[in-house]
Amino acid sequence: MNNLKEAVEAAAERIGPNILETPVVEAPSLSSELGCEVLLKLENIQKTGSFKIRGALNKVLQLTEAEKAAGIVTASSGNHGAAVSKAAQIAGGKVDIYVPEGASPAKIANMERLGGTVHVFGSDSGKSELEAQRVAKETGGTYVSPYNDPQVIAGQGTIGLELSRQVPDMDAVIIAVGGGGLASGIAGYLKAVNPKIETIGAAPAASAAMIASIEAGEIVEIPHDHTLSDGTAGGIDDDAITFPLCRDNLDTLVRVDETAIEEAFRDLFRNEHMLVEGAAAVTLAALRREAPRLKGKKVVLVLCGANISPDVVKSLL
After folding, report:
1. Do residues 302 and 182 make contact, with C-beta atoms less than 8 angstroms apart?
2. Any residues with CB less than 8 A from the CB of 100 and at least 6 apart, and which?
3. What NCBIfam families has UniProt attached to this entry (predicted)?
C-alpha cells in the first residue's frame, strides 16, 4: 500500500467531523504494578463503541451515489458491522451484514439498532466474509472488508496520527491484531513518522492467524478456538494487503492465553474503571508478558472497543 501516511492524513480530514478524537489517559494502577508509564488510548468510548467507525466511514464516504444505491455488504463479528451501519446513516445507503454463528448478542443488537440487516452464516468470521463477498458480487453491491481495503486501513490509521500528536514521546504501542486493519494503519503511520517507536501486535493464542502467517512467511490457515477476544478471531483473506503491512511494521508479536485476557479485563474494569471488550484486554495481557523489558518506558495500550455482552461482563466479574 503506497503512501499510507498521506492516505491516513487525508482520511483524518474526511472523517474528522463525524468521529471523536479519543483521549489518552494515564493508568496509575497499571503503571505502579508494571514499572512503566502506561497510557490508555480510549477507542472504547468512540462512536459505535469501537475504533471501527474510522475505517468504515472513510470507505463509505468515498462511494458514489450509484454504489450506495446498489447496496453495501459486509462481514463482521460485530464492531465493523455497527460501524458500516453508522457510516451508511451518515453518508446514505443500505447495509447487509454477515456474522458468524456465536456472534455476540450485544454486538448484533447494536448493528440492528444502527439500521443494519444481520444474516448469520458460518462457524467463524472467515466463512461469513466469503459469503458476504459472494453476495456482493452476485447483487452488484459494494463489499466493505473489515480489514482488507486500503481506505479502511487508512481510516484506522487516524488513531496513529492522533497518538503522534498526543504522545509524541511514546516508546511503544500495543495493538490487538485480528485481520490486521487496525495494526496496519496505526503501526504503518507511526513507523512513517517515528521509526523508533516499538510497535507490538497482540492476539489471543486461541485465534492468532496473522501472527502465525507472519511467522510462516505466508498467509496460512490455522485452527480457531473460542476466545473472549471475538473481535480479533478468525482467518484472513488469501490476498490480504494487511499481511505485508503487519509483517513490515510490527516489531514484536505476542500471543496471550484466555486466562490472561480475562484477568486483564477485570483489572481494567476494577482498577482503571474502563469497560472494554476482549480484544482491548488483549493489549494489557500482552503488556504483562513484555513488561520486564519495558521497565521505565512510556507504553500506550489501544483500547479498541467496549462492545461486550452484559452477561459476559457478569460472568467475568
Report:
1. yes
2. 77, 120, 121, 122, 123, 124, 125, 127, 128, 234
3. PRK06815.1
Q: Which residues contact 176 (CB under 8 A, 6 or more apart)?
A: 182, 183, 201, 202, 203, 229, 231, 232, 279, 280, 282, 283, 302, 304
Query: Do 4-50+151-316 and 53-147 fold alike per CATH?
Result: yes
The DSSP bridge partners found for residue 42 are 303
Beta carbons of 97 and 75 less than 8 angstroms apart: yes
Q: Measure the CA–CA gap between 259 and 206, rounded to whole angstroms.
A: 11
* Sign for the pseudo-dihedral over CA of 53, 279, 170, 157: negative
Query: Do 103 and 78 form a contact (C-beta atoms < 8 A)?
Result: yes
CATH number of 4-50+151-316: 3.40.50.1100
- Kindly list the domain boundaries of the chain, sorted by start residue: 4-50+151-316, 53-147
pTM of the predicted structure, to 2 decimals: 0.94
Alpha helices in 23-143 (DSSP H): 28-34, 52-60, 65-70, 79-91, 105-113, 125-139
For residues 145 and 250, what is the distance between their CA atoms, to the nearest angstrom? 21
At 126, is the secondary structure helix, strand, or coil?
A: helix
Rounded to whole angstroms, how far apart are CA atoms 313 and 151?
33
Per-residue model confidence as pLDDT tens digits over 130-166: 999 999 999 999 999 999 999 999 999 999 999 999 9
Quote the cell numbers at residue 239.
490476498
d(CA 317, CA 310): 11
d(CA 243, CA 170): 25
Q: Which amino acid is at 166?
A: Q
The secondary element (H helix, E strand) that includes residue 279 is: helix 278-290
Q: Reply yes or no on domain 53-147 having CATH 3.40.50.150.
A: no
